[in-house]
User: Which sequence fits this backbone?
């Protein structure tokens, strides 16, 4: 069966600086896959390349078997891939509700609408007319996730949801993940916190200096193997 | 007392025109932070286009106006998409250079085609009609129409930006043009659409302006300055602010004209500078 | 395993001048000497031309200083050009000062005026700063045009030079122009090689980063603005010294800024030799093509648009970067004099516990 997303030797970077040196990742339908690695390993670069914010060669990214590398980002969301960007990146000029509504701009049909998002994160309903950036960090993260969900994606990519948030808030946000992927949505979760990443995913890839250093089942992989792959310490 | 009322009234009517000049610039600067030096020259260009449609092609005024709006929309979209999109980034210098070049080209092409003489749009006498108010004050139909048009367009723009999906896309693009792509919004097309709407505003301004004043090819830069001043006085990021800014400028100029014809425009500039000192954020600045 | 990364790299040198720059320096020196002798062999028109060229050149150098090194794009520098011209006129005609002395004095007056003006202009940023400076220039233009003592809208003549024989006047004007150009170049050259100059370049590239390194951005900006105002006023005073007649439209015309922009388009922003090359090209073009009136301007405008799109750093800027040419050696180049150090294999240190935000 064709995987939902498949990258083949994905390379990429920023100008003269190359960040990815050939990443092979596969995500099946309904799977939650984790991408772990240290700061600067290339995880965000990977997500941005899939989302179309960074250039990639067409054949390096296959979505439902078709090459999408090089497509502009505004077309990729229409295909069903949504990114919750690192650092939230909400629009300060828009209210919470307007940020969410903008998420539905591409007009993809599905079960995620304003009511569904408010059902997932009830605290946002009370603050729907507040300027989005006036909310707390955790609530902003909820808005960012909701904004991505409003496009009814088949593949949701989350870049460092835990960034800058208190552990209890992080737990609360990740607790919503099962409800999000319940309908068969796939997800790629990028996390620096290895334990958290393993808890929410079925498989994982460890990225180190732009390469996949380890891949495996989240439940059964050994802590030692992961630590070595994470830090790049030679055996 | 009568004189004061008259100055205020004429100032408001003049200011409505300035506000109309400024609306397009307010929109463009709000969405893409672009300073278009050729803004005033585009107004003059459209006046001459209307003149050509009515005076040379002899189209009826209504038809010519419709055509003008359509051409303006297409031209605005094209100019932004193919030309100005390449220079719409953080650095203001390339956009200043390109629009400065455009300004010079437009002025001189118009001069080659039409000579340097001022032209007006013929309206069959409409521009001379006026209504007499008590106290010996007369108010022209055309300036009144301009005021109504400006108020209507300001409401319209406010509604567009505040209540529609396109307006949300405009505001979001101006906030973060990279991330807005993740929502399916192409910033290149959004910028082009913004400029197209701005050109429609310019077309309306040009039509009303050309009907009440004779316009010469070299008039562009002065209009740019009035538009710019109205935007700053009113506060950037607010259409009603721009409206008020235009009013303030119009009243200041009228007051200056009352004392001496030579000091009218000067007083307007000075008032602008005074606002810059006392309240640099303008009357109604947007908070974000 | 021992890390090789802590030993300083060896075998490199920091150099300032290149072969091309040495040739250029010599060439300029020669040109200066030739021009200084011009009153003895050149015709009247040539002398007038050089004075005009000098004015354009100084204007362009100052505009380049402001935009290229100060990061402030102004379309209102003509304000100071006109202030320089009128100040020189007032000092000469009404205060009995020698016109040749009045020129530098006018520059000083302009710098004083620039202080309050900067307080206004600095309220704005980027593109709106540019248009704001234009408004300020218009205030000066319209204000002066309404003062009948200065000739009002039609302007007035420089009568203070009536008593001086023409040959003397023309030679003195030429030497003053030459001294101004050479002096201006020398001052800028010295300044940009110095520490304050380095701070300025840093500020232009990234004001925030420069500020965090201890550069006082506000003071640096003000200093650049004042110097540019003074220099521009000097150019204006010089121009009208040669022209003998001044009017508000000529003195405060936005066309001066247009010239500045074109010169910089050709010559590139942020190099010292750029404005010189640009001024020369522009002056030659102007001499031969301005008779074609509107078509010349249309052509110029189109070229401006094209160059701004294709060569945003100016034609010379592109050439200079592409071929590594720098005629005025204000930069520093790293030159390897021995084979560079070998890059040792990297050993990553263990990551610390808490994840730091990227």
Assistant:
């Amino acid at each position: 069966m064709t995987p939902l997303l498949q990258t083949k030797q994905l390379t990429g970077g920023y100008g003269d600086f190359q960040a990815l040196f050939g990443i092979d990742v596969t995500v099946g339908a309904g799977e939650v896959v984790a991408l772990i690695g240290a700061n600067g390993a290339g995880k965000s670069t990977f997500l941005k390349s899939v989302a179309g914010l960074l250039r990639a060669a067409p054949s390096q990214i296959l979505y439902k078997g078709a090459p999408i590398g090089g497509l502009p980002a505004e077309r990729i969301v229409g295909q069903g891939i949504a990114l919750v960007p690192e650092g939230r990146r909400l629009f300060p000029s828009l209210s919470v509700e307007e940020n969410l509504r903008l998420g539905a701009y591409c007009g993809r049909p599905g079960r995620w609408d304003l009511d569904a998002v408010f059902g997932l994160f009830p605290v946002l309903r009370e603050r729907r007319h507040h300027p989005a950036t006036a909310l707390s960090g955790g609530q902003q993260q909820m808005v960012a996730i909701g904004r991505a969900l409003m496009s009814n994606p088949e593949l949701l990519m989350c870049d460092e949801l835990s960034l800058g948030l208190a552990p209890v808030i992080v737990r609360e946000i990740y607790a919503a993940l099962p409800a999000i992927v319940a309908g068969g949505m796939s997800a790629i979760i990028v996390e620096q916190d290895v334990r958290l990443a393993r808890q929410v995913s079925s498989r994982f890839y460890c990225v180190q200096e732009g390469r996949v250093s380890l891949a495996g089942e989240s439940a059964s992989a050994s802590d030692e193997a992961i630590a070595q792959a994470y830090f790049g310490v030679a055996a | 007392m009568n004189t004061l009322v008259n100055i205020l009234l004429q100032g408001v009517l003049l200011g409505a025109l300035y506000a109309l000049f400024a609306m397009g610039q307010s929109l463009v600067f709000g969405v893409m932070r672009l300073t278009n030096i050729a803004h005033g020259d585009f107004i003059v260009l459209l006046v001459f286009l209307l003149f050509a449609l009515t005076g040379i092609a002899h189209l009826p005024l209504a038809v010519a106006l419709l055509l003008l709006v359509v051409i303006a929309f297409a031209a605005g979209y094209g100019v932004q998409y193919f030309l100005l999109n390449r220079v719409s980034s953080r650095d203001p210098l390339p956009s200043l250079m390109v629009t400065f070049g455009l300004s010079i080209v437009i002025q001189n092409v118009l001069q080659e085609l039409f000579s340097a003489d001022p032209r007006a749009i013929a309206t069959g006498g409409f521009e001379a009609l006026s209504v007499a108010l008590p106290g010996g004050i007369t108010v022209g139909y055309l300036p009144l129409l301009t005021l109504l048009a400006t108020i209507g367009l300001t409401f319209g723009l406010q509604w567009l930006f505040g209540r529609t999906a396109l307006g949300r896309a405009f505001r979001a693009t101006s906030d973060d043009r990279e991330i807005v792509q993740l929502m399916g919004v192409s910033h290149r097309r959004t910028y082009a659409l913004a400029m197209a709407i701005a050109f429609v505003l310019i077309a309306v301004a040009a039509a009303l302006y050309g009907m009440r004043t004779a316009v010469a090819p070299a008039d562009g830069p002065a209009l740019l300055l009035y538009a710019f001043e109205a935007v700053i006085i009113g506060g950037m990021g607010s259409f009603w602010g721009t409206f008020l800014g235009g009013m303030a400028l119009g009243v200041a100029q009228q007051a200056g004209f009352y004392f001496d014809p030579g000091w009218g425009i000067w007083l307007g500039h000075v008032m602008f500078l005074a606002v810059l000192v006392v309240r640099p954020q303008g009357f109604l600045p947007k908070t974000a | 395993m021992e890390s090789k990364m802590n030993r300083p790299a060896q075998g490199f040198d920091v150099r300032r001048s290149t072969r091309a720059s040495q040739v250029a320096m010599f060439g300029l020196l020669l040109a200066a000497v030739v021009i200084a002798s011009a009153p003895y062999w050149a015709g009247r028109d040539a002398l007038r031309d050089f004075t005009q060229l000098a004015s354009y050149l100084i204007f362009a150098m100052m505009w380049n200083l402001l935009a290229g090194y100060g990061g402030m794009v102004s379309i209102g520098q003509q304000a100071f050009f006109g202030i320089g011209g009128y100040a020189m006129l007032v000092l000469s005609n009404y205060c009995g000062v020698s016109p040749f002395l009045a020129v530098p004095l006018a520059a000083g007056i302009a710098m004083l005026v620039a202080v309050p003006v900067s307080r206004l202009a600095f309220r704005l940023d980027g593109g709106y700063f540019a248009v704001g400076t234009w408004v300020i220039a218009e205030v000066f233009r319209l204000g002066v045009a309404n003062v009948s003592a200065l000739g009002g809208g039609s302007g007035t003549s420089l009568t203070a030079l009536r008593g001086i024989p023409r040959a003397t006047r023309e030679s003195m004007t030429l030497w003053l122009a030459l001294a101004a150009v050479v002096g201006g170049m020398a001052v800028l050259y010295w300044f940009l090689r110095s520490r304050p100059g380095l701070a300025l370049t840093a500020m232009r590239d990234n004001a925030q980063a420069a500020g965090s390194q201890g550069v006082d951005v506000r003071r640096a900006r003000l200093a650049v603005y004042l110097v540019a105002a003074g220099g521009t006023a000097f150019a204006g005073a010089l121009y009208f010294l040669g022209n003998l007649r001044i009017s508000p439209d000529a003195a405060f015309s936005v066309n001066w800024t247009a010239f500045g922009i074109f010169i910089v388009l050709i010559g590139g922003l942020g190099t010292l030799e750029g404005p010189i090359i640009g001024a020369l090209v522009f002056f030659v073009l102007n001499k031969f093509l301005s008779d074609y009136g509107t078509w010349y301007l249309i052509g110029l405008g189109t070229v401006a648009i094209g160059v701004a799109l294709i060569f945003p750093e100016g034609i010379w800027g592109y050439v200079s970067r592409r071929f590594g040419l720098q005629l005025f050696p204000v930069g520093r180049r790293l030159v390897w004099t021995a084979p560079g150090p070998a890059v040792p294999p990297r050993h990553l240190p263990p990551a610390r516990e808490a994840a730091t935000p990227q």
Q: What stands out?
A: DSSP finds ten helices and two strands in chain B. Chain B has a mean pLDDT of 90.
